[in-house]
Amino acid sequence: MSKRQLCILGSTGSIGCSTLDVVRLHPERFQVISLAAYTSVDVMFEQCIEFKPSQVVLVSCEHAVLLSQKLNEVNISDITVLSGEQALIDIAECKTSDTVMASIVGASGLLPTLAAVNAGKRVLLANKEALVTSGAIFMAAVKASGAELLPIDSEHNAIFQCLPSHQQEIGECQLLANGISKILLTGSGGPFRTRAIDTLESVTPSQAFAHPNWDMGRKISVDSATMMNKGLEFIEAKWLFNVKAEDIQVVLHPQSTIHSMVQYKDGSVIAQMGNPDMRTPIAHALSFPDRIESGVAPLDFFNTKSFEFQAVDFKRYPNLELAIEACKQGQAACTALNAANEIAVAAFLDEKIKFTDIYKINETSVKKFVSQKVDNINEVIALDKQARSFAQTLLADFLQTEALSQKGNK
Predict the structure, then answer these.
(1) CATH classification number, 330-409, choose in 3.90.960.10, 1.20.1290.10, 1.10.1740.10, 3.40.50.300
(2) 77 annotated to a ligand binding site
(3) Is the pTM of the predicted complex or chain greater than 0.70?
(4) Which family is this protein grouped under (predicted)?
C-alpha cells in the first residue's frame, strides 16, 4: 500500500494536532509532506523534529525567521521554511502531496483550501468557513477538478457515515429521491444551555471557553457558546449534502454522544455515535473507505449518560436563527455573516464588547449586504472585506457608546 502524502493546513491547532495523533499511529500509511500555521513557533518546531516535513509555512514572516533559527540550532537544514499567505496556497496545491487537511480557522482558510480543490486532491474539510463564504462556487470547483471532498466536522462526518454508500457523493447527493426525509444536525447547546437568558450579556470569555464536552480553540469555543458554530454547520450541510434549509433540523443533544442523524422516509433514523473526540472523524476521512484505529476509546454503553434531546430556543441562540435565515437568503448573507462574526468574536475575546453584542453586529451586517451580488471568488473576497470593514465600524460605534455611557455614570 502506498502512503498518503499529507499537507496539514493549521497543524498547530486542535484539529491539526489531532490529525498528527492519528498519523503517529499509522506510520506505514501516511507521510507528512508539509505543515502550516500562523505564528506557533514552538509547536511547529516540535512537529518538524518528529515528522520531518519537507516544507513548512508560518504565515508571519517574523515567526518563520524564528523557526528557521531554531531548526538551524539543531542542524536541521533539509526543511524549507516559508512565510506569507501565498505560501499557504503554494503548499496546498503542490504536487508533492495528494491529501490536504484544511483546518485553518476562519475565512483565511478559503483560498488555500480552494487551491487544494483546484489541484484535484483529497481534501479533508475542517474549515467550514470555506463553504459558508462561497458555497456554490466552492462546490463547482470540486466538481470541475474531480477533487475528493470529505467532511471532518464531527456532525457532517456523522451524516456522511449514515448515508447509503451510493449517496456518499459530496455535493451531488440526491437524498430526497433516495429515501431520506431529513438531516438531523445535533448540537450540545454549549455552556449556557441552562443559564438564565437575561444574564448572558455578562458572560466572560473564560466562561464561554468552558464547553461541557469538547476541547476546542478560542474562536470556535465562543461560536459554540452562541451556537453560531451550529449555524455555520447548518450552511455547510446544505452544500455538502445538496439539500435545502428546510431539509435540515437542529436538535439539541447535551451529551454529544450522537454526532448527527439521518431520518429516512420509512421511519428509520440512523445515528452515528462515539465519544466526543475529533480523532474519530479524522481517522475516518484519512483512511476512507477503510477503517483504522484512531486512538479513541470505544463507547462504553454501560457507563454512558442517558440521551437527552431538546428543541432549540432561538431566544437563547439568536445567532443560530440568524445563520439559518442567511442560509435561505443566499450567498451574500452567508458571506457577510461569517465576516462580521469573526470581527465580533475577536472583539468579545478582547473584552471590548458584551457577549450579546456579537449578535447585534452580525444581524446588522447581514441586513447591510444581504442583496449584494456574489457570482465568483473575487466577488466573495470583496464582499468579505466590505463586511469586515462595516463590522469594524459598528464595533467602533459600540465602543464609543459604551465610553459615553461610562462617562455619564461617573
Answers:
(1) 1.10.1740.10
(2) no
(3) yes
(4) Belongs to the DXR family.
